[in-house]
Amino acid sequence: xxxxxMLCFLLICSAAVLFAEESAESIMKGAPSQITIETIGxxxxxxxxxxxxxxxxxxxDQYSVQKENDHRTFLEIKSPANVKGTRFLMVxxxxxxxxxxxxxxxxxxxxxxxxxxxxxxxxxxxxxxxDMSYLQRDSSLDTYTLLxxxxxxxxxxxxxxxxxxxxxxxxxxxxxxxxxxSRHLVKIAFYDxxxxxxxxxxxxxxxxTQGVDTPRITKMTTLAMNTATTIHIIKMQYNMNIxxxxxxxxxxxxxx
Length: 256
Hints:
Blueprint: H1 14-29, E1 39-50, E2 53-67, E3 70-79, E4 87-93, E5 96-103, E6 108-112, H2 114-118, H3 129-134, E7 142-152, E8 155-164, E9 173-179, E10 185-191, E11 197-209, E12 212-222, E13 227-238, H4 249-254
Antiparallel strand pairs: 1-2, 1-13, 2-3, 3-4, 4-5, 5-6, 7-8, 8-9, 9-10, 10-11, 11-12, 12-13
């Protein structure tokens, strides 16, 4: 199964280049899980902070399904009251991404189109609409290179550079830290088109869920704004039965 989540120095000889690329790609695939994952259901709390102070907390339900060349994600805000009922649908099929959001205050669905809208913040969080799709992209859309090994969080990690094959991507590259022993993804550094570090994502508190090592806490920090959004997993279930109707424009608008 392709991962539901995402995730090049010049070497002297071609053999070394091939070895480095294969090594990096195998690391990014991670250790095999004990089950085949086709669907995921999650309830989480999103904590939005500015200068270290919590500004808002969102309770979010999310459902995802992965089929061959077809990935669908539905997200609904359950609280607080001022954004309750906000729903987001992303369908990525054959490399084409369709994103739509239902805003209850407006009573209508808005399609996310164009580069500028994609970089907008999702409900005031540190995740842009592009991030929502970028983090669940097919790993084959990037070229990976093993840069080095270094210690992070008390564990020795591989540091892998990922460069999107699409030159129009919001990010010019990502650097990914993967623990050598566990193969846990623990950090991602995002660079803009000017090659400036703009965001850092950190994953921690891994626990086994149905045989799959899963981070219970994910934190995205926007460096220039000194803001951060932390996702705390409340409950998660793999391979749950998710009705197909959830991933439709009608359900997005009506919630039923």
